[in-house]
Specification:
By secondary structure, the chain is of the alpha/beta class. It has 4 domains: 61 residues, RNA polymerase II/Efflux pump adaptor protein, barrel-sandwich hybrid domain (OB fold (Dihydrolipoamide Acetyltransferase, E2P)), CATH 2.40.50.100; 144 residues, Rossmann fold; 70 residues; 70 residues. Helices cover 24% and strands 25% of the residues. The strands form 6 sheets. The chain has a 5-stranded mixed β-sheet, sandwiched between helices. Strands 1-7-6-3 form a 4-stranded antiparallel β-sheet, with no helix packed on it. It has a 4-stranded parallel β-sheet with strand order 10-9-8-11, with helices on both faces. Strand 14 and strand 15 form a beta hairpin. It is globular. 47% of the residues are buried. This is Proline reductase-associated electron transfer protein PrdC. GO terms for molecular function: 4 iron, 4 sulfur cluster binding; electron transfer activity; metal ion binding. Keywords: 4Fe-4S, Electron transport, Iron, Iron-sulfur, Metal-binding, Repeat, Transport. InterPro entries: Ion_transpt_RnfC/RsxC (IPR010208), Nuo51_FMN-bd (IPR011538), Nuo51_FMN-bd_sf (IPR037225), PR_assoc_PrdC (IPR031001), RnfC_N (IPR026902).
């Protein structure tokens, strides 16, 4: 039996409450935990026996033989109810419960599918669009109906030519959905960048796309909407990219429909195993991902499993320059510790402002000059600068 760990908090909001107990036999697709407030249903991705339940997870011993079949969500003609029952959250990393996000009236505004695949190395959204553009288009039509959007756009970078060709072919019968090209820059997939590029509206830090009469959703989230409505499938699988110091996956290897809850090591091994030397595992993208372990379970919001190079060792004194588009202070300090470096000073990008306890960028993708900030760090003893991403 393999160990599968279903985290009780795979979304924005409070952890879910288990509705199973230790010793129960569960079947793939079965509802095992429900929200206690803002949140999303959690279903088991495997059939097996509940081994343990903690404050943070449900552990299941998966049977050796697994069927792709699943227990469907309840029948409903209400699209929003199907999304809620399926436990859909933002699959691009944010994890906001989709049934809450999509409960809005755009009064003829626009619905935008975010196909930017913004972080380097990640490739699963584009790969899915190349193979299944019709699934995404159908999902957009459902969501345009739910949100009362008049038009739909698929936001994609021009370099993804195969995906664009596939989408254009699938779009021929549609007259209110079209492709919009994003600049090939980071972070082109940021919602405020997309709104700025498509509508000319400059959203304030913390302001939602709805302020520009738009709703934006990640490609995989839209895929999950289609599957929930048409196949009554709950969110039990995840699309992933494995990349970095991995045999056969240096430039990225895509896995579709990976059962949620398996440890990330399983898919590092499936991709070919480690290339030596290797360093830490990053969960997410290179810029905004977090440190992970081999035992870290796959969750609804995970898009990338990246195996990094070993940290170079640094004896000089380090100054940290944090920004929203890349690593913020906590992650940069973690990296500095891995380098054996002493952090002597910290600054935030000049565009960073605090909004509701979180530091946000005033104008993502448009980096200001940092000369004065660098001089401040130098005056405080920094000999080198450690930053996540900066166009300056």
């Amino acid at each position: 039996m393999e160990r599968v760990e279903l985290m009780l908090r795979q979304h924005v909001g409070a952890p879910c409450s288990p509705i199973v107990k230790v010793g129960d036999e569960v079947k793939r697709g079965q509802l095992v935990a429900v929200p206690t407030g803002l949140g999303a249903n959690i279903h088991t991705s495997v059939s097996g026996i509940v081994k343990d339940i903690t404050d943070i997870s449900i552990v299941i011993d998966a049977f050796d033989e697994q069927s792709p079949d699943y227990i469907p969500i309840k029948e409903t003609d209400d699209y929003l109810e199907a999304i809620k029952e399926a436990g859909i959250v933002g699959a691009g990393g944010a994890g906001f419960p989709a049934h809450v996000k999509f409960k809005t009236d755009l009064k003829g505004g626009c619905f935008i599918a975010n196909a930017a695949e913004c972080e380097p190395l990640l490739a699963h959204n584009i790969a899915y669009l190349e193979q299944n553009p019709d699934v995404i288009i159908r999902g957009m039509k459902y969501l345009m109906e739910i949100t009362n959007a008049k038009v739909g756009y698929i936001a994609i970078k021009v370099k993804h030519l195969n995906a664009i060709k596939a989408i254009n072919k699938a779009l021929k019968p549609e007259d209110n959905i079209s492709i919009k090209i994003l600049p090939d820059m980071y972070p082109a997939g940021d919602e405020r960048v997309i709104v700025r590029e498509f509508t000319g509206v400059e959203l304030k830090p913390g302001e939602l796309p709805s302020a520009a009469n738009a709703v934006i959703s990640n490609v995989e989230t839209i895929k999950n909407v289609t599957l929930a409505i048409e196949q009554r499938k709950p969110v039990i699988d995840k699309d992933l990219t494995v990349a970095g110091r991995v045999r056969g996956a240096k430039e990225g290897k895509v896995f579709f429909n990976v059962p949620i809850g398996y440890p990330v090591k399983k898919y590092i091994e499936k991709a070919g195993g480690y290339l030596e030397p290797h360093g830490e595992i990053i969960l997410g993208g290179p810029f905004t991902g977090k440190h992970g372990e081999e035992t870290s379970p796959i969750v609804k919001t995970l898009g990338g499993i990246i195996v990094a190079m070993p940290f170079p060792q640094e004896k000089r004194k380090v100054g940290i320059l944090a920004c929203e588009c890349g690593a913020q202070e906590e992650r940069l300090r973690e990296i500095a510790a891995g380098m054996g470096a002493q952090v002597v000073a910290e600054r935030k990008c000049k565009r960073m402002v605090e909004v509701n306890g979180r530091w946000r960028c005033e104008k993502p993708g448009v980096c200001p000059g940092q000369a004065s900030t660098v001089l401040d760090l130098k005056r405080e003893g920094a000999e080198v600068i450690l930053t996540g991403t900066c166009g300056d």
